[in-house]
Automatic annotation (TrEMBL):
<feature type="binding site">
    <location>
        <position position="330"/>
    </location>
    <ligand>
        <name>ATP</name>
    </ligand>
</feature>
<dbReference type="GO" id="GO:0005524">
    <property type="term" value="F:ATP binding"/>
</dbReference>
<comment type="pathway">
    <text>Carbohydrate degradation; glycolysis; pyruvate from D-glyceraldehyde 3-phosphate: step 2/5.</text>
</comment>
<dbReference type="InterPro" id="IPR001576">
    <property type="entry name" value="Phosphoglycerate_kinase"/>
</dbReference>
<keyword id="KW-0547">Nucleotide-binding</keyword>
<dbReference type="InterPro" id="IPR015911">
    <property type="entry name" value="Phosphoglycerate_kinase_CS"/>
</dbReference>
<keyword id="KW-0418">Kinase</keyword>
<dbReference type="GO" id="GO:0043531">
    <property type="term" value="F:ADP binding"/>
</dbReference>
<feature type="binding site">
    <location>
        <position position="119"/>
    </location>
    <ligand>
        <name>(2R)-3-phosphoglycerate</name>
    </ligand>
</feature>
<feature type="binding site">
    <location>
        <position position="36"/>
    </location>
    <ligand>
        <name>(2R)-3-phosphoglycerate</name>
    </ligand>
</feature>
<feature type="binding site">
    <location>
        <position position="212"/>
    </location>
    <ligand>
        <name>ATP</name>
    </ligand>
</feature>
<protein>
    <recommendedName>
        <fullName>Phosphoglycerate kinase</fullName>
        <ecNumber>2.7.2.3</ecNumber>
    </recommendedName>
</protein>
<feature type="binding site">
    <location>
        <begin position="59"/>
        <end position="62"/>
    </location>
    <ligand>
        <name>substrate</name>
    </ligand>
</feature>
<comment type="subunit">
    <text>Monomer.</text>
</comment>
<dbReference type="GO" id="GO:0004618">
    <property type="term" value="F:phosphoglycerate kinase activity"/>
</dbReference>
<feature type="binding site">
    <location>
        <position position="119"/>
    </location>
    <ligand>
        <name>substrate</name>
    </ligand>
</feature>
<feature type="binding site">
    <location>
        <position position="36"/>
    </location>
    <ligand>
        <name>substrate</name>
    </ligand>
</feature>
Amino acid sequence: MAKLTVEDLPLEGKKVLMRVDFNVPIKDGVVGDDNRIVAALPTIKYVIDHGGRAILFSHLGRIKKEEDKPGLSLRPVAERLSNLLNKPVTFVPVTEGKQLEDAIDNMKNGDVLLVQNTRYEDVKDGEYVKRESGNDPELGKYWASLGDVFVNDAFGTAHRKHASNVGIATNMPGKAAAGYLMEKEIKFLGDAVDNPERPFVAILGGAKVSDKIGVIDNLLDKADKIIIGGGMAYTFYAAKGIKVGNSLVEKDKIDVAKQILDKAGDKLVLPIDNVVADKFNNDADTKIVEGDIDDGWMALDIGPKSVEEFKNVLKDAKTVVWNGPMGVFEMPNFAKGTLEIGKFLGTLTDATTIVGGGDSTAAVKELGVADKLTHISTGGGASLTYLEGNELPGIAAISDK
Ligand code: AMP
């Protein structure tokens, strides 16, 4: 990798500023799914095992007014992290000032400290000033002044330019490194997009074409096949003159879909048949139809022939990237297409299989096949930006080797 990694940094006795992604669900002061905390442990442990003093920064949720703050404190995360590390974690309930500076000065080698939610800086004296989210230059400089080196392990925020990732890194030239999680994401997504073992098949789904046009554009030049499922498939149907009934269609994107189809030739694989419903409801009447969808019916999942066709395209793949569900998988009666594809990916043991995005990740976890896949990206938005071929500011700001 062309960027510095945590193993390139001096750590013994150093104040190691670390940007992690602890943006986890919290209910009634208790952390729910702690996957993101667990994912950050290898880098944190490496730092403290090598005598570093780990000073952790993360955002949590969105803060737009003072009242948002109490419910978005990182204190419960400090408790969970302490349990996971089996050692005390000092929580500092502020993001700047003497209390924070003193707490850092009091740290010993191997200690861990968690700073309050970086987005507390977005609201000052009741005003929405976005110091963190807007990468206020003074804030990045101040946080950088608190440490000796910087480790960015928050891939999930890498597509954003915040003071706590880009700001700190740009103020620590030559001393900003990627953590293990960041390194892993860059390796798998980077190799898949820029240097894939072929055939390389992308599976794109989800509601909207508009969200994925950049990805399709970029992957058309790189992938051998692009499978399209989910709501976005029906804008392509409309572009091909296939009747869509009441299915989800983005009318203003039909022309773009036509252009993509012209450019893609047989690279783009659309569903052959669909599960259509008479209303947007799990208890709707349903049937399976090939091709044209009549008025009064909407496609909410891909049909069994589509599943077979998609499996056929996938079976010889050596690299697969999947983002977005094949149907309205939140409703059990329309989850089958998504689950079948997830299950099949789990059988492709010779291929590098990568899943990004919350919904597809939820599907592979629900199926219990997550551990059979090569890589589950921790960042939905960040992985999409990567797949679009765009630079991620959080990664770009990390020092070159
Ligand atoms: P995205 O956030 O773009 O990945 O889209 C995910 C959402 O797309 C999920 O909430 C799905 O329910 C929705 N979705 C998938 N297929 C369809 C469909 N055929 N019609 C309507 N919504 C869909």
